[in-house]
Automatic annotation (TrEMBL):
Native source species: Agrocybe pediades
Family: Belongs to the GST superfamily.
Stored PANTHER family: GLUTATHIONE S-TRANSFERASE 1, GLUTATHIONE S-TRANSFERASE-RELATED
UniProt KW keywords: Transferase
Signal peptide: none
Gene Ontology annotations for the cellular component aspect, listed alphabetically: cytoplasm
Protein name (record): glutathione transferase
Record domain GST N-terminal: where: 1-80
Source organism phylogeny: Eukaryota, Fungi, Dikarya, Basidiomycota, Agaricomycotina
Length: 222
């Protein structure tokens, strides 16, 4: 049986969504984040970095969500989630861009916001000042470049999907997590095409089923 090792509020939500779209049977093993928002140590028993998602499928144990998405589409897709010829390069680019270039900046933004909030109250003002300045000088200018690139890409096609087709492909499964997080936390920072993309993801029946099975998720409501 295919098992998704699912951490709450994490990238493994994209794997559940994909499996529901493909109609592939699977089971979920759930893990809860610690108060420090880390994965619990039990995930280390499954994979050396102890991060989510990880899947186990017979003798295969696979981590890294991009690899998982490509593996699942290749093995269980039966022709689904495959881009058209004209969407091939966009699919390839955004499938890898999501974790390779975009997520690091999304994570930095989250951490710079999280650290002062978690600090003891007496050092919070100084940390807010320092991290606020770091964000303004280093993170936000990068974030603006990324959001401009993504908005420009999505707005040039009639399709809501990254590869321009009628159905989501690997790029969409990969791009959904960072974009839904940004829409949830900083809705004013994203453009209309990004919002339309996130709405399209959230209105998929398969996405709702994945939410039901995965449990509470901060970036979407059932
Ligand atoms: N690039 C990896 C990132 C994996 C990752 O950082 N997962 C997060 C959840 S979204 C995690 O497990 N965080 C908890 C921790 O690092 O302790 C992927 O796409 O699978």
């Amino acid at each position: 049986m295919l098992t998704v090792h699912h951490l709450n509020n994490s990238r493994s939500q994209r794997v559940l969504w994909l499996l529901e779209e493909l109609g592939t049977p699977y089971e979920i093993k759930k893990y809860e984040r610690t108060p420090q928002q880390r994965a619990p140590p039990e995930l280390l028993a499954i994979s050396p970095l102890g991060k989510s998602p990880v899947i186990t499928d017979g003798s295969v144990t696979l981590a890294e969500s991009g690899a998982i998405v490509e593996y699942l589409i290749g093995k269980y897709g039966n022709g689904k989630a495959v881009p058209t010829d004209s969407g091939y390069l966009d699919n390839l680019y955004f499938t890898h861009y999501a974790e390779g270039s975009f997520m690091p900046i999304v994570t930095q933004k989250y951490i710079f916001d999280f650290i002062p909030k978690q600090a003891p109250f007496f050092i919070r003002p100084i940390l807010s000042l320092v991290f606020g300045q770091l964000d303004k000088q280093f993170v936000q200018p990068e974030m603006t470049k990324h959001l401009t690139l993504i908005e420009a890409h999505l707005s040039k096609s009639q399709s809501v999907w990254f590869a321009g087709g009628a159905e989501p492909t690997a790029a969409d499964y990969q791009m959904a997590f960072p974009l839904e997080a940004l829409v949830a936390y900083t809705p004013g920072s994203v453009g209309p095409s990004i919002k339309k993309f996130v709405d399209a993801v959230h209105s998929r029946e398969a996405y709702s089923k994945a939410l039901e099975k995965g449990g509470p998720y901060s970036y979407a409501t059932m």
